[in-house]
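Hi there,

I know you've been waiting on this one. I reran it after we fixed the sequence typo, so this is the corrected version. Both the input and the resulting structure follow.
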Amino acid sequence: MILLGLLIIAAGAFCQSSSYVPIKKIKTWSWESFWLTQGIFAWLVFPLAGALLAVPEGESLLSLFTSNPEASLATICYGALWGVGGLTFGLSMRYLGVALGQSISLGTCAALGTVLAPVFTGHASDITTSVIIGVVVTLVGIAVIGVAGSMKARTSGGDDSVKEFNFTKGIAVALLAGFMSACFNIGLYAGAPLQFAGVNPLYATLPATFLVTLGGFATNAAYCLFCNARNRTWSDYSVAPSMWLNNILFCALAGVLWYSQFFGLAIGKGFLEGSPTLYTFAFCILMALNVTFSNVWGIILKEWKGCSRQTIAVLMAGLVILIVSSFLPQLI
């Protein structure tokens, strides 16, 4: 059962790491237009569909949320803070590329999300020595990948595959993104009471997941609409029907791939209840695997093309450490 849970989380991580590939197929739209459109699918449509799986016959999500307004409000607020991380997360890849941008952002998110969520919600006892060791090893893996990124920047003088590559600015943005993105897991902990009695454990956290993404959508939508107005890009939404259909389809594909990580996390954790350590560490596992798969995509997209063998060796070492960190707490 534990292995199945880990495999499901890994499948979700692979989908999330693949979610930015369809965006490259979107034509003519500005950043704010495609970010908002894919967000409608990633943070509203598919999370709502997932949450409905946890609703018994004769019940409703609205009744669940209104029956515990404090938990619902806290979950949405943490989601709004996570939304800030989502905005800067997009910018981190803009300046660093898919591989390095996701690595730094998700690494910071993994560590802080795993540790701060139990602390902020009164479950500090969940943070065992095994969990701390797993987080530390994950951070080591992220740091090694960061070293590889720094070596890449020094030897190539930039990154031709990322048009706006800026290592210094990108690192600062990525760290901020990781810190704010940690609020997602805090929101899940805050929303723990938001589940129906007797619900299948595999679906139990999906209503809380929806509220977190709802809060994140509000933050992102406000910023994107502001950018539409500032940059006068409203015309993006009135392109030719064929272009519109192309962009909508790829935004929807990106959205469902992105949401798959947290759908997989919810389902996977349902199989990890027999291991309290892995259950607490599940969010960190997801982020570590996101980093691993994002770097695989970075290699496929030739973001590491032209780097020295030494740089690639350091990158591979970082990836191995991350993979080991995903299973380490269970072995200790």
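Quick highlight: DSSP finds eleven helices and no strands in the chain.

Best,
R. S.
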